């Protein structure tokens, strides 16, 4: 591709510029930014400048523009990166042949990395034609994790306070599942925030969005009373309406992804307790022994919310017990130690909750079956914290900036180092392009035994070590290191490091405490025995070498490692946070190196987070430290595509127009000359191509593909016409044979009729011997049917069902889930999905009560298992907006049929893993179908704008749901707890009465329409538990355990449930 001298701002690819220096580079980006062109290419690298406003370029129109297109066909866009990664996954990278892809998004805090991640995932789901529930769940992961892991900082209003690597797993281009890896959540933010910053978003969502009933349930206080909200209520008060909306969206996302109602309730209890922990005031007496100051209300509230004993909580916060030679000693905490214990418990509680959320997401989004590595490919998206430099920079900033150094090194390796080394080894004539190598800076951090993290770990081993002694060791060991700058004042705990992005001064205060991340063993023991299921579960889990939470029930492969006994000092041998983070970065880089990388460089245009403001000096600094000028130069001069000869021939041999082509350099040259490419080189084992050559090659492949489709169309048409003549002739022959057979049959029938009439006309009775001869078979009439050849085709539907049944056999197997591996377990209690009988069974077992109204009868809009065509017939003479909901035969779910202006439209209604309802392609989730109907009577179904208006009932003299009615033998809806039936008998109810489920429980509704309510309604949780105690598997409405259901019933204090639970 020749260099261009286009007017400023009109060049989509900066690598094509004829003249290139820092000033020209900045001018191009600035001019494009001022004209809302925020995306620019540098070769195959995308530069994205944050506009700080919505430009309206991420809708369906733009999504279609970037589907399976050659890059040069459209302006630069983040969607083009998604398309490139997806197509490379399907065909293999032209550079490495690797099918696994990774997209590395980098930039400083506030540059737009998280938003870019969401756009990339959205387009990838669009590319694989994702309309399934799994794909909708994946789209909800980012906003869900943002609520718990993002916060407002001085640099970014939605700053990621953790890193994440999202792996989308595919089979034959279809997404099969996803996995999230989390890195270094900034837990310290829960208990303290710097000036101008906020706590995690979720707390402000709760304060602004919880209903009065929920506020009371979770013992919430007024926002400005919480000491853990260091800088006041802020967002909870200034953005209350928006925060309330965000909580509703979060709840909807959790419903859609598959979090149980009970789990959400326990999560909110933990979060409320986390805030309340800060209200526990601690002081010291004259002996310097800590005690809880003032009222014990805060202690009691925390204990109630997370299911622990309040006296035990008070004790673990104020003293510790130690033993020596069989004697137990009480060691009182000082006020400062007690506050540290309280804050440590709070941070660990929140940190483990966050890890559990990630684990839960991984479980819910895992592939339904265990897939072999050879069967799958993946696209990984890395969204990690950006480079940070605040007024006060602590341990978290040091780790974050280390991660950015590692990513910069990975970028340098791929763009500069490895590429130029390959030129040399392959004998390519090349002028070396210098770049800033940050290897020596990484050694400063990671070297052993003398590196910053190694020295920090060493210092953490000494009980009397302090943050100052750590800084003194740094000053002694790195005095001559040009990256390390010690403080001018000897007594200071500060030190500075010259990073690739600039000098950062760190304050070492609390470095040792944050690196140790200790929690007293008595606190661990107390939380493990909590009556709150979720609290107990997350504290019985263990932390892996990379810092992730592994729940014990998922670590079967490592059972040989004994579970730590309660009360032991497991924290002594616990790996430090720095060591865990170092290990996690190592694992991450291994994953990235096994994939073909795509780079997105995010640029922050100004420091004030303002739209339409481009600060030249600020942007120049970012371009300089990211090496953008050198990157542009090497992309212009270098050869970004370096495939092996065989890989290139396999991919593009069709372009050579030769039936036989050797998989060596001669084959490659033949292809390139046939296509007419220039400016390429042949090495010893590889071909060296410019980055734009891939677009040109793919363009030729697309043209060839279109030609092949046209040829196929013509050929298939010709063959179809030939077959048509043959089939018409055969059909005519069969018709003639059938006519001959029918004529013979008619003739024989007439003969027999004539004989019979003669007998009947006789004067005498029919002799007795006639009947005897008939019985003996003497007068059997034999008619030989002609041989008719009927062409027998394969019943594709039956074949499909058969193969699916075989697949379901695998689904029923329980997979052993081990650390870092998640398999979604799918149970089907109702038979083969896609059969009418299975749908009937599913409906009776789980849905019989879900479609009834308050009177106990089926809603007017409800219909049975009817076809799409029958639904359209019912709606044909109805007004626009008429609708009905029918049970699906092809899957366990429903279909919504709606009369629109020009035609009938049909929408699938799916059930979430927790038994809630949603229209496929829409985000809102509903507890029942009545809520769904009510919602879409007001809000149109996007993108069509159709609104439900009038229910379409049954046709006259027809009841199309009769097969779904309750079993006539017991006169009750299938799935109703047998304990409730016993209760009906005890009360002497008539057999015609049915149990009807309503939002406040089951009632006994006589067939006459009147309703007699049970004095103690049965909740859904109790219903599931009771069903299980009667020896039946609980229906798939919810996956609550028996114990969870029992505890739920006990909390509601309903004696009927306790009595029922003991019937077993």
UniProtKB/TrEMBL annotation:
Residues 9-702 form the Myosin motor domain. It is an enzyme of class 2 (transferase). The keyword Cell inner membrane does not apply. Keywords: Actin-binding, ATP-binding, Cell projection, Cytoplasm, Cytoskeleton, Kinase, Motor protein, Myosin, Nucleotide-binding, Repeat, Serine/threonine-protein kinase, SH2 domain, Transferase. GO terms for molecular function: actin binding; ATP binding; microfilament motor activity; protein serine/threonine kinase activity. Residues 804-814 have a biased composition (Acidic residues). Residues 861-952 form the SH2 domain. Residues 1038-1047 have a biased composition (Low complexity). The keyword RNA-binding does not apply. Coiled coil: none annotated. Residues 585-607 are annotated as: Actin-binding. GO terms for biological process: regulation of actin filament length. ATP binds at residues 107-114. It is found in: Cell projection; Cytoplasm, Cytoskeleton. It comes from the Eukaryota. Pfam families: IQ, Myosin_head, SH2. Signal peptide: none annotated. Residues 785-814, 983-1016, 1034-1064 are annotated as: Disordered. Its main location: other. One of its GO terms (cellular component) is myosin complex. It catalyses: L-seryl-[protein] + ATP = O-phospho-L-seryl-[protein] + ADP + H(+); L-threonyl-[protein] + ATP = O-phospho-L-threonyl-[protein] + ADP + H(+). Residues 1049-1064 have a biased composition (Basic and acidic residues). Its EC number is 2.7.11.1. Belongs to the TRAFAC class myosin-kinesin ATPase superfamily. Myosin family. This is non-specific serine/threonine protein kinase. The lineage of its organism: Eukaryota, Metazoa, Echinodermata, Eleutherozoa, Asterozoa.
């Amino acid at each position: 591709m020749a260099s261009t001298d286009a007017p400023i701002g009109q060049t989509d690819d900066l690598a094509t510029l004829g003249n290139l220096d820092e000033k020209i580079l900045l001018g191009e980006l600035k001019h494009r930014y001022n004209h809302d062109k925020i995306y620019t290419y540098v070769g195959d690298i995308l530069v994205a400048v944050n506009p700080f406003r919505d430009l309206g370029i991420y809708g369906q129109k733009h999504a279609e523009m970037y589907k399976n297109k050659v890059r040069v066909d459209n302006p630069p866009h983040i969607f083009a990166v998604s398309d490139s990664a997806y197509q490379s996954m399907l065909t293999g990278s032209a550079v490495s042949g690797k099918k696994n892809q990774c997209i590395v998004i980098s930039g400083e805090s506030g540059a737009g990395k998280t938003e870019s991640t969401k756009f990339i995932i959205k387009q990838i789901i669009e590319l694989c034609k994702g309309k399934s529930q799994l794909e909708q769940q994946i789209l909800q992961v980012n906003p869900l994790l943002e609520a718990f892991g993002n916060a407002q900082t001085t640099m970014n209003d939605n700053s990621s306070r953790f890193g994440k690597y999202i792996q989308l797993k595919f089979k034959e281009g279809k997404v099969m599942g996803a996995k999230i890896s989390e890195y270094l959540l900034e837990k310290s933010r829960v208990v303290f925030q710097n000036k101008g910053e906020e706590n995690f978003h979720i707390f402000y969502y709760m304060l602004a969005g919880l209903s009065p009933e929920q506020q009371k349930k979770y013992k919430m206080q007024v926002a400005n009373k919480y000491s853990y909200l260091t800088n006041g209520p802020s967002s909870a008060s200034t953005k209350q309406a928006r925060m309330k909306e965000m909580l509703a969206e979060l709840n909807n996302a959790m419903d859609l992804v598959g979090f149980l109602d009970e789990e959400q309730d326990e999560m909110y209890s933990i979060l409320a307790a986390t805030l309340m922990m800060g209200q526990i005031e601690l002081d010291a007496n004259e002996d310097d022994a800590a005690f809880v100051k003032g009222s014990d209300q805060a202690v009691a509230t925390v204990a109630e919310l997370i299911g622990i004993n309040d006296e035990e909580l008070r004790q673990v916060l104020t003293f510790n017990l130690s033993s020596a030679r069989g004697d137990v000693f009480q060691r009182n905490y000082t006020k400062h130690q007690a506050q540290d214990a309280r804050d440590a418990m709070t941070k660990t509680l929140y940190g483990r909750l966050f890890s559990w959320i990630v684990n839960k997401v991984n479980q819910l989004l895992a592939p339904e079956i265990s897939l072999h590595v050879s069967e799958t490919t993946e696209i990984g998206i890395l969204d990690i914290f950006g480079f940070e430099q605040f007024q006060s920079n602590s341990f978290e900033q040091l780790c974050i900036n280390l991660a950015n150094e590692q990513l910069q090194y990975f970028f340098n390796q791929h763009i500069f180092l490895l590429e130029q080394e390959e030129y040399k080894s392959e004998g390519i004539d090349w002028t070396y392009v210098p770049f800033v190598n940050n290897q020596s800076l990484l050694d400063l951090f990671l070297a052993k035994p003398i590196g910053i993290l190694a020295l920090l770990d060493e210092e953490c081993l000494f009980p009397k070590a302090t943050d100052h002694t750590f800084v003194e060791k740094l000053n002694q060991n790195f005095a001559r290191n040009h990256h390390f700058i010690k403080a001018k004042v000897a007594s200071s705990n500060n030190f500075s490091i010259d990073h690739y992005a600039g000098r950062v001064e760190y304050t070492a205060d609390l470095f040792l405490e944050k690196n140790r991340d200790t929690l007293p063993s008595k606190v661990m023991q107390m939380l493990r025995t909590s009556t709150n299921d979720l609290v107990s579960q997350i504290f019985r889990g263990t932390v892996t070498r990379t810092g992730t939470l592994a729940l014990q029930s998922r670590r079967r492969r490592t059972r040989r490692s004994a579970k730590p006994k309660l009360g032991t000092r497991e924290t002594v041998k616990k790996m430090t946070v720095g060591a865990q983070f170092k290990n996690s970065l190592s694992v991450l880089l291994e994953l990235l190196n096994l994939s073909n990388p795509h780079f997105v460089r995010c640029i922050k245009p100004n420091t004030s987070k303002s739209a339409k403001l481009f600060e030249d000096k600020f942007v120049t600094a970012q371009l300089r430290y990211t090496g953008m000028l050198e990157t542009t130069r090497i992309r212009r001069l270098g050869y970004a595509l370096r495939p092996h000869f065989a890989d290139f021939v396999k991919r593009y041999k069709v372009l050579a127009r030769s039936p036989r082509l050797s998989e060596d350099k001669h084959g490659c040259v033949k292809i390139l000359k046939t296509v007419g490419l220039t400016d390429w080189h042949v090495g010893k084992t590889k071909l060296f191509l410019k980055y734009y050559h891939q677009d040109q090659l793919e363009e030729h492949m697309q043209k060839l593909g279109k030609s092949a489709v046209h040829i196929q169309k013509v050929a298939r048409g010709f063959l179809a016409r030939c077959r048509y003549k043959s089939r018409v002739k055969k059909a005519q022959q069969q018709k003639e044979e059938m006519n001959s057979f029918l004529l013979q049959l008619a003739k024989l029938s007439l003969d027999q009729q004539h004989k019979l009439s003669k007998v009947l006309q006789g004067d005498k009775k029919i002799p007795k011997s006639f009947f005897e001869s008939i019985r003996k078979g003497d007068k059997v009439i034999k008619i030989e049917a002609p041989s008719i050849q009927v062409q027998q085709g394969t019943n594709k539907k039956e074949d499909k069902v058969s193969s699916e049944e075989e697949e379901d056999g695998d689904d029923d197997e329980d997979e052993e889930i081990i650390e870092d591996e998640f398999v979604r377990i799918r149970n089907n209690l109702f038979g083969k999905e896609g059969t009418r009988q299975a749908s009937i069974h599913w409906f009776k077992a789980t849905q019989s009560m879900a479609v009834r109204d308050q009177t106990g009868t089926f809603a007017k809009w409800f219909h049975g298992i009817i076809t799409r065509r029958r639904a359209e017939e019912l709606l044909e003479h109805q007004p626009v907006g008429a609708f009905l909901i029918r049970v699906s035969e092809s899957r366990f779910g429903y279909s919504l049929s709606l009369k629109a202006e020009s035609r009938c439209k049909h929408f699938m209604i799916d059930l979430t893993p927790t038994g809630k309802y949603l229209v496929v392609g829409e985000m809102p989730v509903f507890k029942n179908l009545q809520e769904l109907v009510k919602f879409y009577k007001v809000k149109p179904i996007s993108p069509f704008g159709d609104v439900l208006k009038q229910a379409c009932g049954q046709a006259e003299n027809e009841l199309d749901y009769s097969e779904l009615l309750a079993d006539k033998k017991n006169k009750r809806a299938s799935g109703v707890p047998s304990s409730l039936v016993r209760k009906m008998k005890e009360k002497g109810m008539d057999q015609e009465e049915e149990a009807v489920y309503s939002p406040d429980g089951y009632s006994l509704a006589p067939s006459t329409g009147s309703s007699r309510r049970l004095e103690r309604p049965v909740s859904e949780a109790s219903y599931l538990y009771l069903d299980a105690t009667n020896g039946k598997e609980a229906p798939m409405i919810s996956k609550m355990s028996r114990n969870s259901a029992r505890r739920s019933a006990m909390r509601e204090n309903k004696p009927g449930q306790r009595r029922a639970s003991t019937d077993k």
